[in-house]
DNA sequence: TATTGTTATACTCTATAACTATA
DNA sequence: TATAGTTATAGAGTATAACAATA
């Protein structure tokens, strides 16, 4: 499984502060992500991509097309087909044909899927709350804001060919 | 390639603030990591695990055993064997037999490996500096400190069975 | 027996590309 | 022709387990 390399160990004194920051960011995230992944598997026998797909559907009770799922998950279509096939086998999601365009389906959670997802989401949230609990509410807010700035900065690839 | 799902879209109003923070953390990290991975491949034809292994060796000029590499990279031994095999084929690292214990080797960078790594590391650092450049120096410091707190908190699994 | 490392194998996640059926 | 989705395949990246050589 691997519970996260401590990549931060790579940082050396002569490295730029930004690099140290990045390695620390990577190290924290990987550690949390690996824990979540492992617990989702152990507790619910589900993988992160499948959990994510169900989360997408939970937000859209009216359902989503395969293409829209593919776009939202930033994953190519073939992969969505595979995940939906699995979840459909377990009767957690359903494909419904669309009137109007017979090439396309609407995928949505089944009642069983909604129920299963909500149990998983509850646990998942507890894990995350617990793992972040070493930061005060105020610190979490600060972190949230800083990451917001970072994220906005990443939006434009920031390849400003220095003129 | 995939340049990072925007997982943050999963966050909903009724979700705990910690969950939103986690999704944002994941989203930022994934986006940077995917970019780095892609550029390492395009620019140097190298994967992240191979880059990481070379980084480990660069920090230890006297070399490391396979087992120690496996521990530091938090990856099982078979995988280290594969990576070292590849890098040895390209003459970037070398295995040297140890006097004293003939089961074990010392792996270290060759001069060519040192040279190649230092060129890659320089570029890599530039990419990172650029991607983080939307944050001021002061903001980066703040972020670094907050993540330090978080990381310390993660060290003990924080499974404090609430009494 | 225990340890170091290798080999063989499998599974998850992702991508690309050829294909089918509609439109 | 173009689009929605599927199938087939490949390649990272990881794990486990059986194995060989040495301690």
The low-confidence runs of chain A, each spanning 5 or more residues with pLDDT under 50, are 1-5, 156-163
Tell me the strand percentage band of chain A.
5-15%
Question: Count the strands of chain A?
Answer: 2
Largest interface, with counts of residues having CB < 8 Å to the other chain, equals: A-B, 63 and 63 residues
Oligomer: homodimer
Helix content of chain A: 55-70%
The tally of helices of chain A reads 6
Specify the overall morphology of chain A. globular
* CATH architecture call of the largest domain in chain A: Orthogonal Bundle
CATH fold name of the largest domain in chain A: Arc Repressor Mutant, subunit A
State the end-to-end distance of chain A. 46 Å
Largest sheet of chain A: 2 strands, antiparallel
Quickly name the level 1 CATH class of the largest domain in chain A: Mainly Alpha
Number of domains of chain A: 2
CATH superfamily of the largest domain in chain A: Winged helix-like DNA-binding domain superfamily/Winged helix DNA-binding domain
Structural class determined from secondary elements of chain A? mainly alpha
Q: What's the Cα radius of gyration of chain A? A: 20 Å
Strand order of the largest sheet of chain A: 1-2
Average per-residue pLDDT of chain A, rounded, comes to 89
Could you explain how this protein is built, in words?
- The structure is a homodimer of 163-residue chains.
- Chain A is mainly alpha-helical.
- The first copy, chain A, contains six helices and two strands; from the N terminus they run H-H-H-H-E-E-H-H.
- In chain A, strand 1 and strand 2 form a beta hairpin.
- In chain A, helix 1 crosses helix 5, helix 2 packs across helix 5 and helix 3 crosses helix 4.
- The longest helix of chain A has 28 residues.
- The first copy, chain A, starts with 16 loop residues before the first helix and ends in an 8-residue tail after the last helix.
- Chains A and B meet through helix 1, helix 2, helix 5 and helix 6 of A and helix 1, helix 2, helix 5 and helix 6 of B.
- The structure holds a DNA duplex (23 and 23 nucleotides).
């Amino acid at each position: 499984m691997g519970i996260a390399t401590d990549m931060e160990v790579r940082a050396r004194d002569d490295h730029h502060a930004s690099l140290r920051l990045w390695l620390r960011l990577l190290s924290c995230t990987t550690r949390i992500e690996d824990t979540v992944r492992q617990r989702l598997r152990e507790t619910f026998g589900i993988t992160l991509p499948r959990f994510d797909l169900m989360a997408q559907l939970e937000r859209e009770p009216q359902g989503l097309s395969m293409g829209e799922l593919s776009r939202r998950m930033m994953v190519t279509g073939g992969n969505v087909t595979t995940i939906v096939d699995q979840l459909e086998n377990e009767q957690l999601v359903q494909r419904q044909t669309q009137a109007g365009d017979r090439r396309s389906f609407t995928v949505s959670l089944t009642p069983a899927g909604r129920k299963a997802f909500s149990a998983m989401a509850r646990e998942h949230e507890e894990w995350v709350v617990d793992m972040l609990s070493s930061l005060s509410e105020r610190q979490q807010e600060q972190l949230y804001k800083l990451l917001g700035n970072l994220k906005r900065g990443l939006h434009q690839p920031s390849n400003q060919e220095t003129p």
